[in-house]
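During the reporting period the student researcher (J.K.) took over the structure-prediction task from the postdoctoral fellow and processed the backlog of single-chain submissions. One of the processed entries is reproduced below for the supervisory committee.
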Amino acid sequence: MDTKVTRDWGLIFGGIALAIVGCIVIWWPGLSVMEFAIIAGVFLVIAGVVDFINWVRFHKQMEGSGWALANAICNVILGIMFLMHPVMGAWVITWTAGAFIVAYGVFAIVAAFRLRGAGSGWGWMLFNGIISILCGLFFFFAPDFFGIFLGVFLLMRGVSMALYGITGPTAMLGM
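J.K. obtained the following structure tokens:
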């Protein structure tokens, strides 16, 4: 395996943008569900496209690359759902978003355990998966706090993307 670290500037900039949106959402949790849906939708589609491009670039070198593809598809579906139906009731959006974010968390945890023997990065991925599952579950149990939990998820997702971009494709082995 090549030990040279290759920076992925698309992941880095996409992750920074998603983290900024997460901070904005946390800062202004009173935004309407429609505004949340539009902001999150745009950036989740971007995250999914970046994830898909990375899957195409690296899937032959990645063990378990199906998880990376599933993650990309989940991001795009969730983003499109938010963009196509921003005026849906908060209940539907929070439950659907919660289900997708729980699924993302499960993907991240499975990937983390697959990466455990491959070196660094797996701990962050595990932490990210656990926080994602908690945020997704809170969408079900505390929909009034949708903005805060969505912001935390977007922030975590953005930081993860940026870290994977900095550490190179080896950090994406099972994502």
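The committee noted the following: The helical segments are 9-27, 33-58, 65-84, 90-115, 122-141, 146-167.
J.K. will present the remaining backlog at the next meeting.
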